[in-house]
Amino acid sequence: MQPSVVFVLGGPGAGKGTQCQRIVQNYGYVHLSAGDLLREERNNPGSKYGELIENYIREGKIVPVEITCSLLEAAMDASGKEKFLIDGFPRNQNNLDGWQKAMAGKVRLQFVLFFDCPLEVCTERCLSRGAGRSDDNMESLRKRFNTYLNETKPIIEHYEDLSLVRRIDATRGVEKVYEDVRRIFEEPNV
Ligand code: UP5
Ligand code: MG
């Protein structure tokens, strides 16, 4: 069977990771956060990409797709599973092109789950997260947001044109947001 994929997109701190954890508990998906995979690779002393990844993350820039896509593919293979939530990817045209080239023939894209959340709410969430991330500071957040607006929004619009986007109002509390998420995953054809 062809593995199936849901792309999970939204601004920095919109709640992608939080909601993915819940989906995993109820719907048997494997959660793969591209950001988490990149941070793991950065922390691996044997990696030749550590410094590059850290620089990109602090600057809120998007790491070249060859690196991200191969981490995603390796994690998919290693899981031995067939349903994936790919969180925080594809974030720009380079990501989309690289994914299409390497993966489009191997997996089925179910839909794109879009957590829509304004800048002020996202900023507040990131600044109060307290996870010690090197990009949770005002300066990096401004850059992350610019990248999101200039590069990721057009990717969401691309999928909107293909009628593949399921938009969720992510400004409310975690439970309320998850009610809407569940409604989507309970649909008969999902
Ligand atoms: N929280 C969550 N939901 C809430 C709610 N409904 N109400 C109130 N609080 C809520 O949540 C963020 C914080 O808000 C948490 O404290 C949470 O408790 C609270 P989280 O679920 O972590 O949000 P998420 O959207 O996952 O935020 P994250 O910061 O992870 O999003 P980013 O997209 O910015 O980060 P990511 O890790 O995906 O990417 C980081 C960087 O990696 C990028 O900027 C880029 O440099 C690089 N990257 C690439 O280069 N390529 C990729 O493909 C992916 C990443
Ligand atoms: Mg996240």
Automatic annotation (TrEMBL):
GO terms for cellular component: cytoplasm; nucleus. Keywords: ATP-binding, Cytoplasm, Kinase, Nucleotide-binding, Nucleus, Pyrimidine biosynthesis, Transferase. GO terms for biological process: 'de novo' pyrimidine nucleobase biosynthetic process; pyrimidine nucleotide biosynthetic process. Gene3D superfamilies: P-loop containing nucleotide triphosphate hydrolases. ATP binds at G13, A14, G15, K16, G17, T18, R129, R172. CMP binds at N95. It is found in: Cytoplasm; Nucleus. CDD domains: ADK. InterPro entries: Adenylat/UMP-CMP_kin (IPR000850), Adenylat_kinase_CS (IPR033690), P-loop_NTPase (IPR027417), UMP_CMP_kinase (IPR006266). SUPFAM superfamilies: P-loop containing nucleoside triphosphate hydrolases. Pfam families: ADK. Residues 33-63 are annotated as: NMPbind. A ribonucleoside 5'-phosphate binds at R39, K61, I62, V63, G88, F89, P90, R91, R133, R144. Its cofactor is Mg(2+). It is an enzyme of class 2 (transferase). Its EC number is 2.7.4.14. Binds 1 Mg(2+) ion per monomer. GO terms for molecular function: ATP binding; nucleoside monophosphate kinase activity. Consists of three domains, a large central CORE domain and two small peripheral domains, NMPbind and LID, which undergo movements during catalysis. The LID domain closes over the site of phosphoryl transfer upon ATP binding. Assembling and dissambling the active center during each catalytic cycle provides an effective means to prevent ATP hydrolysis. Catalyzes the phosphorylation of pyrimidine nucleoside monophosphates at the expense of ATP. Plays an important role in de novo pyrimidine nucleotide biosynthesis. Has preference for UMP and CMP as phosphate acceptors. Monomer. Belongs to the adenylate kinase family. UMP-CMP kinase subfamily. This is UMP-CMP kinase. It comes from Aromia moschata. The lineage of its organism: Eukaryota, Metazoa, Ecdysozoa, Arthropoda, Hexapoda.
